[in-house]
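Sequence design from tokenized structure. All designs in this work follow the same two-part layout: the structure record, then the generated sequence. An example of the structure record is given first.
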């Protein structure tokens, strides 16, 4: 009976041990953010233990054990970084390793596979943090054009982007209208907004790694348009209030610099009616002259009639005078 109980206890202990090993082996790098500082030195941020001191050990052998003569585990106390986070650290030429973590003398992580190629360097983070500032631009300028349609004049004012970089270079761009289908651009804009928030170092590293992957894939897939006179114009079909992502490229002596801006388009349209000019034809009256024969004839007849009337009146006056003398 005692032998049976002992076997059951041993079986339960073996089962629990196998279960714990299984759980720890299935852990992934998602719980760890890796920062490459310089050369072959790395700092590891464990999400669960940023604010708690812990002990850690690394080995290239997943069967390593504490106190083992052939494959020993040497646990080291975590240290605090300049932001107050508890971190693990290692200098290694290997690209992979296994990691163990102890808290209060209890192993909380065992045989965690670490892939150092999934790290991001401090230099790369500094570079990514200046995106939107690499190629200086002025987004306050506009252009205006007039279009005549039937009897209407349309005055269209649209925002433009002017590259203000003083260096002699060739500039290119690609403007993408943000919609529900532009998932990568939407996510990039979301990450950019999140990076301006108050994040811990673990969150920042993961976001910068995602940002780097998205940005690089966009740059490789972009069809570039030359920015003539350093002017970037949104499509003529752009409407007021639409959001655009504008990728930019600067080339100097074979070296390319990339940047991106997230902008809201501006467009204003004013209409006015064309004023119609109505012309009226007026016949000019010629001045009266006396060179016309008909007019001369009429004038002559009039004069003769006036003379006849005058003589008749004079004749009647004489007769009337004689008659009065006789009486």
């Amino acid at each position: 009976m005692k032998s049976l109980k002992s076997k059951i206890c041993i079986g339960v202990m073996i089962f629990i041990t196998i279960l714990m090993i299984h759980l720890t082996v299935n852990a992934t790098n998602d719980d760890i953010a890796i920062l490459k500082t310089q050369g072959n030195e790395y700092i590891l941020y464990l999400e669960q233990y940023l604010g708690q001191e812990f002990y850690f050990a690394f080995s290239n052998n997943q069967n390593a054990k504490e106190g083992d003569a052939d494959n020993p585990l040497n646990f080291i106390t975590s240290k605090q970084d300049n932001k107050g986070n508890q971190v693990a650290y290692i200098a290694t030429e290997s690209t992979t390793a296994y990691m163990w973590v102890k808290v209060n003398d209890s192993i909380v992580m065992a045989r965690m596979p670490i892939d150092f190629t999934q790290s991001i360097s401090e230099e790369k983070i500094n570079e990514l943090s200046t995106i939107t500032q690499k190629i200086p631009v002025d987004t306050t300028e506009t252009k205006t054009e007039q279009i005549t349609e039937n009897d209407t004049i349309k005055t269209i004012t649209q925002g433009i982007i002017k590259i203000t970089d003083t260096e002699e270079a060739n500039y290119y761009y690609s403007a993408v209208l943000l919609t529900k289908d532009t998932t990568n651009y939407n996510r990039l804009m979301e990450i950019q907004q999140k990076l301006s928030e108050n994040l811990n170092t673990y969150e920042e590293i993961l976001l910068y790694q995602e940002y780097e992957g998205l940005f690089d894939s966009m740059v490789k897939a972009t069809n570039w348009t030359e920015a003539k006179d350093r002017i970037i114009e949104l499509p003529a079909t752009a409407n007021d209030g639409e959001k655009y992502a504008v990728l930019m490229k600067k080339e100097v002596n074979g070296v390319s610099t990339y940047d991106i801006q997230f902008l809201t388009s501006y467009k204003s349209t004013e209409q006015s009616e064309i004023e119609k000019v109505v012309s009226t034809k007026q016949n000019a009256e010629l001045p009266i002259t006396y060179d016309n024969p008909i007019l001369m004839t009429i004038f002559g007849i009039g004069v003769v009639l006036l003379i006849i009337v005058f003589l008749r009146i004079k004749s009647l006056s004489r007769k009337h005078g004689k008659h009065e003398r006789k009486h």
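The first strand starts at residue 32 and ends at 36. We note this feature because it recurs in several other targets discussed in the main text.
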